[in-house]
Amino acid sequence: MPIVILIIAVIGAGALGYGGSVVVNKQKSASGKAQADKLLEEAKVKSKQLELDAKEEALKLQNDAKDDEKRRRDRFDEQDKRVLEREKLLDSKLEAVERRAENLNNDEKDIEAIKQELREIKDRQMKNLEKIAKLKKKEAEEKLMTMTERDIKADLVEYIEKLKRDATENADEDSKEIMAQAMERMASSQAVERTVTTVAIPNDEVKGKIIGKEGRNIQAFERLTGVDVLIDESPGVIVLSGFDPIRRQVARVAMEQLVKDGRIHPGKIEEIVEKAQNEIDLDIKKAGEQAARDAKVLGLPPEINRLMGQLKFRTSFSQNVLHHSVEMAHLAAMIAEEIGADVKVSRTAAYLHDLGKAVSHEIEGKHHHITGDIMRKEGFDEATVHAAEAHHDDIEATTVEASIVRAVDALSAGRPGARGDSVENFGKRMTDLENVAKSFNGVEKVYAMSAGREIRVFVSPENVDDLTAIKLARDIATKIEATLKYPGTIKVNIIRETRAVEFAK
User: Fold this and answer.
1) Residue 161: enclosing H or E segment and its boundaries?
2) pTM
3) Tens of pLDDT along 270-293?
4) Over the Cα atoms of the chain, what is R_g?
5) What is the CATH code of the structural domain delimited by 427-496?
6) Calpha distance 250→174 (Å, rounded)
7) Of 181, 234, 316, 416, which is most buried, counting CB atoms within 10 Å of its CB?
């Protein structure tokens, strides 16, 4: 019985617990629903508030846009108003200008009418004067000139004679003063050129290398450069002799490089001589450009600068021709400026007057005629060409600039120590000797050696065979005997060389 009661009690407690749980859950569900309804209501309120705020903001932006548009329209209206006012002002000014132009036209017509009236009055007065004087205007002028000439002719003749006497008496003094002033402003040193060049060597053993086996090295060097190599007992030096200063300079550079290199044989000599020739060609180009800048004669053609650069190694009566030309350019410009002549023409002509000396050993003729031909070929104006060409007496100087060039040539050459005669004559004899041999067909190069006692003539092997070479030597010797004066004998040496060159690859 007690067990039954216990079971019943347990069942009752379980039912009571279940019922309580259900009640609690129902209470909780009701509370959550109420809370959700509350949150939903609050969200609706907030949404309505945000919608109201958005509408207010949109309305505010719309009002602001309307205000901006109104201000912009007001500004445009103001600008249109100003434009209209300016147009009215311009129209009024245009009307005023048109009225003024009309008034000017009327004034011009009035002035022209007054001028016409004055001309008519003048014509009437002239006719009245002609009636009174019984002379036409032209007849009156002639009569007046005749009377004036008769009255003052003697005075005019005396005055003109006085001017001539003053000019004659003062011309010599004035010219000396101008030249003296030019010489004071332009003073350059003079250096005497010679026909030999010495090359220093480190020791006398080098002399044997230069000579080579059976003299092959020295012969190759002389053949390629056209100068004599003099090797004597003088210690430490080798002498290069030749009348042509450019050949001598090439030989000097080549010899110095050979001595420095130490490998001396015909093949190396040919290579070094070619390099030395290229080096001297570059030196000539730079010398010509620098001389033109020094003389202030700019814009010359490259060929003219190259020929002028060659004059660095040329002499005229022992005077360096390039230095002489630069000096003359300055003297001519000074004198031309002093007497009112054309400075540019005088300067350019003086600088280029000896241009022909650069090629006078290649082209037959006097150097100043060659100068004129070259300048005309390069497009110089005739005034400059004539002034440069007429610096010797066989061409008459017809312009002031030509007379200036002739004067400064004598002025530069006449300075004490500027020139010497012997070296120039020697060079001329050597050039004439070479030109005689060059006049024959088949001749490629000619070198006067041993102070003119020997000439070496290199001929083209394709055009001259062995028998022809023998005949050519006799013909050259015969022509030298007939055309030149010289002491002693001259050896004519014909050199004919055939080379076959091939490369192994």
Assistant:
1) helix 137-185
2) 0.49
3) 888 889 889 888 888 888 888 888
4) 55
5) 3.30.300.20
6) 47
7) 316
